[in-house]
Write a structure and sequence with these properties.
The protein has one domain: Tetracycline Repressor, domain 2 (Orthogonal Bundle), CATH 1.10.357.10. It is elongated. The chain is 76% helix and 0% strand. The protein is built from ten helices and no strands. It is mainly α. One of its GO terms (molecular function) is DNA binding. InterPro entries: Homeodomain-like_sf (IPR009057), HTH_TetR (IPR001647), Tet_transcr_reg_TetR-rel_C_sf (IPR036271). Pfam families: TetR_N.
């Protein structure tokens, strides 16, 4: 792994656990075992490092969205994979909160370009969810009660709210319970009765 990637990974962990305003280059230098000057070589400013973290997350969402273009995917499986990822990360504390979610809570204090990257992350995620929900509705798997865009935004809010609630209670299982409730509301009424 390159030093640059180690710096990004360290910043991701620190943002997820402390927030943007809760860490410094000294924290990253200590965690990665490099001098602060080495960090500045790769990322001249703290916002540059945080932006690299967000861009890495966005790239994953964009790649996932492109993979859906082929059409051969199970929408429910996609949603369960997405929420299952966060369920595991919260349970084992490897990524107890989405980095973009942490940054969004600090949006008023972030540099403008970083704030825009955070907003773009949520737009990308919402677009991906909209694609998944649209396909699920077309296949008869999901029952949407509003536009696919509105349902995507609602589901995204459920996931991020569940992260926050699990953190507030210190109970990882709360995340799974809240998200499962949200998924059941999306599943067609006939499937809900059968389960």
């Amino acid at each position: 792994m390159t030093t640059q990637q180690k710096l990004i990974d360290s910043a991701r962990h620190l943002i997820q656990t402390r927030g943007y305003n809760g860490f410094s280059y000294a924290d990253v230098a200590e965690e990665v075992q490099v001098r602060k000057a080495s960090i500045h070589h790769h990322f001249p400013a703290k916002a540059d490092l945080a932006r690299a973290v967000v861009e890495e997350s966005r790239a994953l969402i964009v790649a996932q969205t492109r993979s859906l273009d082929g059409g051969g995917f199970d929408p429910e499986e996609q949603l369960r994979f997405y929420t299952g990822y966060w369920e595991r990360c919260i349970a084992d504390a490897s990524a107890p909160f989405c980095v973009a979610g942490m940054l969004a809570s600090e949006l008023p204090t972030l540099p403008a370009d970083l704030a825009e990257n955070v907003r773009a992350h949520f737009r990308d995620l919402s677009n991906w969810l909209e694609t998944v929900l649209t396909k699920g509705a077309q296949l008869g798997l999901f029952e949407l009660h509003g536009s696919a865009r509105l349902e995507a935004e609602s589901f995204m809010s459920i996931v991020y709210g569940a992260m926050l609630t699990a953190r507030a209670y210190g109970e990882p299982k709360v995340f799974a319970e809240i998200v499962e409730s949200g998924l059941r509301k999306l599943l067609r009424r006939t499937e809900r009765v059968a389960s």
